[in-house]
From TrEMBL:
Known catalytic reactions: L-glutaminyl-[peptide chain release factor] + S-adenosyl-L-methionine = N(5)-methyl-L-glutaminyl-[peptide chain release factor] + S-adenosyl-L-homocysteine + H(+)
Pfam families named among the record's database cross-references: MTS, PrmC_N
EC numbers for this chain: 2.1.1.297
GO terms for biological process, alphabetical: methylation
Gene name for this UniProt entry: prmC
Keyword Lyase: no
Binding site for substrate: 189-192
UniProt cross-references to NCBIfam families, sorted A to Z: hemK_fam, RF_mod_PrmC
Function: Methylates the class 1 translation termination release factors RF1/PrfA and RF2/PrfB on the glutamine residue of the universally conserved GGQ motif.
Protein's recorded name: Release factor glutamine methyltransferase
Domain Methyltransferase small per the UniProt entry, residue ranges: 110-192
HAMAP family: RF_methyltr_PrmC
Amino acid sequence: MGRLLKWTADYLQQQKADSPRLDAELLLAQSLGCKRIELYTRFDEVVADEPRGKFRNLVKQRASGMPVAYLLGRKEFYSRDFRVTPDVLIPRPETEHLVIAALDRLREIAKTGAPQICDVGTGSGCVAITLAKELPTLHVTAIEISPAALVVAAENAEKLGVAERIEFVEGDLLTTLPETPAFDAIVSNPPYIGLVEKPTLPRDVLQFEPHGALFSGEDGLDAIRALVDQAPSRLKPGGWLLIEFGPVVADAATAILAGSPHFETPTVEKDLAKLPRILIARRKAN
Ligand SMILES: C[S@@+](CC[C@H](N)C(=O)[O-])C[C@H]1O[C@@H](n2cnc3c(N)ncnc32)[C@H](O)[C@@H]1O
């Protein structure tokens, strides 16, 4: 097994995988139906024909660029396992900052009542479900334009035991919701990559992740512009708008929110790499 792993890691490295050794271990553990950590006590074992065949097939797909999360059918987010399929964006560690920023504000609100929030572009449901897990009184309306993604999100909510507190809605941003000030917060990790950036994206992302989850018009700002426009009428006075974005669009997105007469001055929080990542503003009280 040790030699098989070494050979595979070298091969994946030649195929330009980012983390070849880790990928090889995860795919072998999946083929053997065991945990990755268990491989370390089994290094001297010979892998039987059936798991070896499974492993070879997975490695072939990985070498062609298919992300490991899709091959495993799961990805960890905020220390929980989420089912993922090629219909949903693979949850990113950066998005945990969106969750933390939302929790910081919602915990305060939860002291006096049950917060109501909306998650726009829910994808796998990772943001909506994590917030519901962390705040037992929270109710979430989770919106998604892709019906196939909604199926995955609903499965994750069921599996993680929060389905009764999340309403999944198929819709285009906030347009399907009435213009009533219902929410204490609207959170979103919308698509924010400009079509102009397409040639710069890694192959694994461009070829395998859903383009509806990545791109938002030429400059990447279509969804953020629309959210800033649609959110005020659905937020309670003093309610929070929290949007994840990428460093490329950070200045332009901040200017869009700062230009809205309905919000107080926005703030930007950085991720662990010190890159601007979360845009936050409060609806004015009037
Ligand atoms: C960047 S992904 C985020 C997914 C998930 N919330 C996460 O953080 O991993 C954006 C999601 O928004 C959805 N989406 C794109 N345009 C939308 C729209 N106009 N209305 C609702 N959802 C949309 C995509 O299908 C995708 O699931």
